């Protein structure tokens, strides 16, 4: 249940106290038992509010926190997209922004998200703009989101901008999901193949080695190789494990901390057959959709390009967009600046030029984004079909090769006996 809140005029703006969640039980005027949960500054204030609504409170107590998972799940971009959609819908229906956030916070099942929304609501209720309130949470609300909200507040179309942002985040997350799907499947298969191979080398091959010692005959070269590899794994497995973990950690740290390494990695990724084209199309789609959204929201073009650079998901394209921004800042049209970086296909620059001439740059950029998002979808589906037989061959060669190596001496012995 939610209680209607009345605002009183005051010359000074007072910041509300933090509110806790209470569980209450009471009876209405007909004697019917009613239960609920509600946030309040104190149990006494909640009792007073319930009496005002015609409910006689019997029990009002703080809501207990679960032993496990009390902090809640981490806040994802999709959570922010849902929040944006909800608040835009309620604001369009005439619900004030503070009331909208109170409803969203009370109805959210993720405690972290509820805490975040309540924090933003408290700042807005104390007199801050939504943009100023969001600036206190830069991890959840990135620079692009904040700039769009600022533009929406300045133009008086905040609910429209929030709805646009929600659509944008949903599309971008769907695109990211497609990319992750393209990378996850082969990575998991390779990981499983390595784990199975390690188990065979550490536990199975030594058993066969004991059997081979009783043959008294020379082992095939392939079998000797597998046996030697098995001995190495049994003796030095901890070194191999530490080395693998160290390489992964070093790779992640280098990627996150070294711009040069990230740029080198992104350049190499863009040149990989099939996957490189998917990454190209993904970066173009994200560039077009992000620039379209910011431009439509009324963000100045140079400022929009500065924000868009970090949203492309690729350091190579990020550098290119910053060069485009510098050219646009001195008066070049966007399409001409895009041609100079030599990364965008002819179709993209031509559609951008048409959009600039027609005064509908945002609409044309959205069409470009839709086209390249569909290209990514098609490429990912094609990649999955292409990888399936290759993965089967890979598994057959790795696992099947070791099995054959173990049985070769047995076949050789059988032929000798025969």
UniProtKB/TrEMBL annotation:
Xref: InterPro entries: GspF/PilC, T2SS_GspF/T4SS_PilC_CS, T2SS_GspF_dom, T2SS_GspF_sf
UniProt organism field: Lysobacter cavernae
Keyword Transmembrane annotated: yes
Pfam families the record matches: T2SSF
Subcellular location: Cell inner membrane
Domain Type II secretion system protein GspF as annotated: residue spans: 83-206, 287-409
Highest taxon of the lineage: Bacteria
Protein family: Belongs to the GSP F family.
Record has Cell inner membrane as a keyword: yes
Descriptive protein name: Type II secretion system F family protein
Membrane topology label: Multi-pass membrane protein
Transmembrane residue ranges: 184-205, 235-254, 390-410
